[in-house]
Design goal:
Strand content: 5-15%
Largest sheet: 4 strands, antiparallel
Radius of gyration: 22 Å
Shape: elongated
Number of helices: 12
Distance between the termini: 28 Å
Number of domains: 2
Length: 290
Amino acid sequence: MADIKEINSLIHLLDDPDMEVYQHVEERLLTMGEEVIAPLELAWEQSFDALQQSRIEELVHKIQFNQVLIDLELWALSGSFDLLQGLIIVNKYQYPDCDEQKIINQIESIKREIWLQMTYSMNAVEKVRLFNTIFYNTEGFSGNTRNYNDPQNSYIGQVLESRKGNPILLACIYSIVAQKLDMPIYGVNLPQHFILACTDNYQTNNKEDEVLFYINAFNRGQIFGRHDVLSFLNQLKLPNYPQFFQPCDNISIIERVLRNLYNYYTNNSITQKAEELEKMLALINGHQYI
């Protein structure tokens, strides 16, 4: 626990015109982590100095971004089993003060709504059709076709609020809820699209013959077969690699979410965010970013 007197003394030096002093103060506050955010925000509210306010804003962002990197690395190193947690970490990059429990509760609420109407005797197709009715009609989820490239489509908190998302986020929410209902539905990392595979008790061994059928979460849960995936790849003049037909791991999913955001910020010349997303991508790929 850092000394509050030391924190306040350092904060008072944030308006020092000497860059060497400022850099020393910044480095010290950065090492203290998230516990200095509240005193920094209080100082920002009480300050009338534009330079100090600007430096506080930059410092708070750096601390929060460092925490996102730490959380992302811990998630990856711990096996990346919880896709929802990975998506929440990405969400915290843009919305550091987001209510994590609210997101979890929203997912549980959707699950409960479907569970109440699901019966044990239903087969896989019947379960998916019921799921689709509630997910798209009752809960109101749909593909964001009007603003397809909007970065908000990649942040789970925003997608749960607006009920609109891109193919990968809709598929993620769909599969997270499905797995909570013991429906073995997993993401498939298809080029230029992201779909779902309904499997026969898939257990991470990537056997294609365990896939019963595919689901297009972006198109209201449309059910289709392997030949449709093959046709899609042929249209794109892409080879039919086995991984285009099989469930992918959660690392690959989070990497693709981050890649979408990186491409958006790069194409729109939002340099700082593009550089930060590059660091997150490098970390998730297991590289040390310097």
